[in-house]
Amino acid sequence: MKRTPESIAKQVATMKAKYGDNIPGTFKKGCKCISPTKFKKGDIPWNKDKEFKQREKHPNWKGGITPIEQSIRDMLENERWKRLVSARDGIICQECGYENPKNEVHHIERLADMIREFLYINKKLNPKNRKDKEKLLVLAKDYKPFWDVNNGVVLCKGCHDTKRDWMVRDSKGRFV
Known about the structure:
It contains six helices and two strands, in the order αααβααβα. The chain is mainly α and 176 residues long. It has a domain at 68-163. A two-stranded antiparallel sheet has the order 1-2. The relative contact order is 0.12.
């Protein structure tokens, strides 16, 4: 819907009645800011020279509780794998032919099954232990089945949802 000059003029008049000449989103050269900041030039920020608390040192740290499955899905290698599959298949759904740049990349063999197999192969390492989990993530980078481009296909949202119907959801509604 195209706006008419009358509706624009009415909106400007309403804004001027409410804010005067200091209409939010407008800037006039040489005018002072409407709401000056509390931080003045030369002031020292409150966090200067304070240690940035990470991991165990941070008060909200809960012991690295991100599951290994989610950590593998969040790896840069997974993003690279998605880009490679998308480059091969383009933006066309390989099931129905729907062309959309927002089509999703789908594992033909379930990633959850491959992760279970990977954990079984490396059963000496406990994914609940932080140091073991870090070792598992390093090993996961080199685990070929995760990043095999032939195990991926581009699907539209509808086709991807039908492929995932048989999958089970956990208590938080995520696919397992």
